[in-house]
Each structure stands twice: as C-alpha cells, then as structure tokens.
C-alpha cells in the first residue's frame, strides 16, 4: 500500500492527557486523530460521508498511525515491546544503558534495527535529545460560577510547547488517492480547530506539512511497511476483534491501556455524552500474527454511536529478529 507522512507544526501550546488538567503528554494516539477527522467530516459534509470513511477503514483501505515526535530530521516511534536480541549477554559496562532504555518512551526509527538486535547503546543520548523537542508549562486560569456569583476559583493547566524545529508527525497508509486527499483536507481543518484539550482556550492548533516523498524517511518506512515479515510492531493503538483475540495475542508482547472520558463538545446534543471505558493495546506492542482490529462503538446509547479507532498499523521487523 501507498503511504504519506504529515508533520503537524504546532502554533500554540497543547494539552494531551487522560482527563487531568495538571499534567500533559507530548503526543497522542491514532484514535484521537480519527475522532478529530470524523468531527471535521461531519462539520463539512454529512453522516453519509463519515460512514463512507468508516467503511474504507473497515475494508483495510486506510490506516492511521499514532502521532509521534520529530525534531529536525529525526523521527521517533514508541519504544517497541520486544525481547531484545543478545539481551541476556549484556555485560556490566552496558548495565547503565539498560537502565536508560527502561526510561525511554520513544526510539528514533533510524535506530530500530540496532535496538532489536541488541546493538543499541545510545539510550542516554536519546533521553536527552527527546527533552529538546519541547517543554511543559503551567498556566493558571480562573473558573467563575455565573449562577452563584461566587469568587473566581483558580486552577492550573499543564501545557506542552514544542520547540521551533520540532512537532509531531503521523503516517497514513491508503489505497485510493481521493481518500488521502480528503483526509489531508480534513487534517488541515483539524489544525485550524485544534486538537486535544482546552481547544476553547486556543490550544492545539497546527499547520500540516506533507513530507517530501524523496525524503530519506520514506525509504526507511517503505521497507518497514511493505515488506511482510514474521515479527511486527504496531505504531498505532489497536484492539483485535473478539474472534481475533486468541490468535492475535499468541506470542505477542503488549501493554494494555484504558481510555474513557466524555464526548467532544461538538456532540453536545447527544443524551449520553460519557463514553464507555475502552481497553486497547499500546503502540509499540509486537506480534507474530496479523489481525484487522476495527472501529468500535463506545457509546452507551446505541442510537448515537461514538466510534473508537483501533486498527493496527504494522511495521515489519522480522528480518532483524530472525
């Protein structure tokens, strides 16, 4: 399949979290990308257009990665959950680096081969460089109860500000040119509206930059995406369907995460704005068996479905692992 890489160049602070205003992450998952695109689809078109996009995803014609950090020409992915080759032979000189590896959340995709083959020795530098991508900031705001007339209550929001030469990027794998053009247009609209928490305060706005197809990163990802191998890692949060779980998890190494919360304010007319808790497999999880995953309805009200994107976007790494 074909794919395109888009940089998200943020123009404002961002708040990406799990419901708490007092902390934030620097990145977000593929389900947030899909949800934001879906909202812009409904704003610009109609429910039939959204259903067409969902059908495209369910037919395995469109895949979306998590949003990962980049700085200059260095692109990161989630640290893979794999058994590192030669790990048992690690000598005392490398013990400190092993501790640094445990601290890592992201790995330069250029170092993926070294990491899996047990030849990676730059964890400390990676942890230092990741801090150059940006920094957390703390903003104090006030909440006023207009009904009671009580004094304003101050509260703190933690935001993340990206450095000028850094941001996030996503990869979209696709079959049809018209669909990738549509998704790019919708992504541009998302950038105008903002993504993440506190959009009403102007957070999360970005410009979309399509990475040139001649860039070196395309050659790296083309091999990882399109050459089928035995061992694969996912670069998107995902969940096998009920009839896929047993086979998908056989021989897999994964981390289970939980997601819940409330519906975006765009859906304020919905009677049941709270979403069901959703458990999924984190980006970086590794598998030996393919599975499709899907788009799941996490609403409490079946008449008003709320969709959660959970398709695996596989990178094939078996050639190094075998």
Descriptive keywords:
alpha+beta; three-stranded antiparallel β-sheet; seven-stranded antiparallel β-sheet; 322 residues; 16 strands; 9 helices
Report on the architecture of this protein.
This protein has 322 residues and is α+β, with helices and mostly antiparallel strands. The chain has one domain. Helix content is 27%, strand content 25%. It has 9 helices and 16 strands. It has helices at residues 30-44, 47-58, 95-103, 112-116, 123-130, 177-193, 216-226, 245-249, 318-321; strands at residues 2-10, 62-64, 68-71, 74-78, 106-108, 134-143, 153-162, 166-174, 206-210, 232-234, 256-259, 278-281, 286-287, 294-297, 307-310, 314-316. The strands form 5 sheets. Strands 1, 2, 3, 4, 5, 8 and 9 form a 7-stranded antiparallel β-sheet that branches. A 3-stranded antiparallel β-sheet has the order 13-10-16. A two-stranded antiparallel sheet has the order 6-7. β3 (68-71) and β4 (74-78) form a beta hairpin. α1 (30-44) packs across α6. It is globular. Mean pLDDT is 87; it is low at 267-272.
């Amino acid at each position: 399949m074909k794919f395109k890489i888009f940089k998200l160049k943020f123009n404002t602070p961002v708040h990406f979290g799990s419901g708490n205003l007092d902390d934030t992450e620097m990145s977000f998952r593929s389900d947030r990308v899909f949800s934001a695109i879906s909202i812009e689809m409904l704003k610009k078109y109609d429910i039939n257009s959204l259903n067409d996009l969902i059908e495209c995803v369910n037919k395995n014609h469109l895949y979306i990665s998590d949003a990962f950090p980049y700085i200059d020409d260095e692109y990161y992915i989630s640290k893979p959950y794999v058994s590192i080759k030669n790990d048992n032979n690690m000598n005392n000189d490398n013990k400190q680096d092993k501790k640094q590896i445990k601290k890592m959340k992201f790995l330069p995709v250029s170092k993926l081969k070294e990491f899996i083959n047990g030849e990676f020795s730059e964890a400390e530098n990676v942890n230092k460089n990741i801090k150059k991508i940006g920094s957390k900031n703390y903003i104090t705001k006030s909440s006023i109860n207009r009904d009671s007339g009580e004094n304003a209550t101050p509260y703190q929001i933690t935001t993340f500000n990206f450095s000028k030469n850094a941001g996030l990027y996503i990869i979209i794998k696709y079959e049809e040119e018209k669909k990738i053009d549509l998704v790019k247009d919708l992504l541009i609209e998302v950038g105008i509206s903002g993504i993440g928490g506190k959009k009403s305060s102007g957070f999360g706005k970005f410009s979309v930059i399509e990475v040139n197809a001649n860039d070196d990163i395309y050659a790296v990802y083309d091999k990882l995406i399109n050459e089928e191998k035995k061992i694969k890692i996912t670069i998107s949060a995902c969940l096998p369907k009920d009839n896929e779980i047993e086979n998908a998890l056989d021989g897999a190494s994964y981390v289970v995460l939980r997601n819940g919360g409330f519906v975006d304010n765009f859906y304020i007319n919905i009677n049941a704005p709270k979403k069901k808790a959703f458990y999924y497999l984190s980006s970086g999880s590794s598998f030996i068996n393919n599975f499709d995953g899907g788009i799941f309805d996490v609403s409490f009200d079946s008449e008003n479905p709320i969709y959660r994107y959970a398709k695996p976007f596989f990178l094939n790494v078996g050639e190094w692992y075998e």
